[in-house]
User: Fold this.
Amino acid sequence: MALTGIQIFKLLPKTNCKECGVPTCLAFAMNLASGKAELDACPYVSDEAREQLAEASAPPIRPVVVGKGVRKATSGGETVQYRHEKTFYNQSLLAALVPSDILPDDLGAKLKSWNALQFERVGLNLRPELVALKDVNGDASAFSAAAKQIAETSEFNIILMTENVDVMKAGIEAAGFKRPLMYAATAGNADAMGELAKENNLPLAIKAENVESLGALSEKLTGMGLKDLVLDPGSREPKQSNSDMIAIRRSALKDSNRAMGFPTITFPCEMASNLDFETMLAAMHIAKYSGIVVISDFAGESLFPLLLERLNIFTDPQRPMTVTEGIYEIGNPDENSPVLVTTNFALTYFIVSGEIEGSRVPSWLLIKDSEGLSVLTAWAAGKFAGDDVGMFIKKSGIMDKVKHKDLVIPGYAAAIVGDVEEELPDWNIIVGPREAAHIPGFLKEKK
Assistant:
């Protein structure tokens, strides 16, 4: 149960040292109670108090780490039902299904094809994280061999899918070093699967017939000392699955039901007969509120929109999306190509770069860090001032790439021309169009 600010204050050292960033321990306690501060910010809290506070301040949905390596990811850890209340933190993980009887060459080809599905967007590399290996015939050696191939020959992390404890043991022996997710503990095998998860320190998924029996099974496994659980209510009909995801989330957040306080897993691959319908269901589950979504295959035309949806939902709405400051080459520019500058607000970058690319005039686009603000907002806030832009041009390295000294600034920032000229006296500062749609005509005219 969450503690009040006064209850937290009683456990703090009361030194008012200000090292946490606020003036008093009481203010820090109030911030901690409202989720605006982290306990680690207090350097003097005792171990005993830390233990009590850590439990009290833990997120209502436990964060669970799945996998190791570059695609290690965390599911869960959410604190609100709706993103506008605060933000969502750990994005839904995407997995594709493979059967355990797949031939090694076919599995290798799939892994190679899936690994190539990586998309650059707003300076981020978007890609899926998991392969779900499903036991189809109870053959422990085949299951182990496929798990070993996935773990050792790809960057993907693994979901080991079997209710057979012996088959699960074989999979863990082959791929346990990748910290796979065990799927699944049921009413019939919970004791054995729970012990296996404890012995190997692995996350364990629970599968039940409905939400009610899921809670009882969750309580049993947490009573065994297991903390990293993933929940599957067993629903395979789209409407019921959606309802169950909402019910589990609400139970954990609104009712403080610790048995429901874990990330969830859904299987659109078991709810639809084709990948198109699966993709639609996967989109529904990413929105509400699956921690892991398993589909039958990864294909660019279905995966890309899911990755974009995920990016949009799990991007902090309080922080503008940005691109990295620097020089961007558009269309293989040379030493005579035009040089343009704008802010690092992601939408600004993509609109401007898209119009430049559409003009077919190879250009250098300089992106200045404006803390994610658009041109007009950044100028008004002093984040795109003339002297700052001039200093950025000097240190950017563009002078080593071009022979001319013509710089195109955004039309909405025309007021900074004088200050830029003072900082760059040898440069010809040109005011570009106010609207990005006019950039192609402007570049062709100046060419």
Residues 238-253 form the longest helix (16 residues). Residues 64-314 form a domain with the TIM Barrel fold (CATH 3.20.20.20). The mean pLDDT is 93.
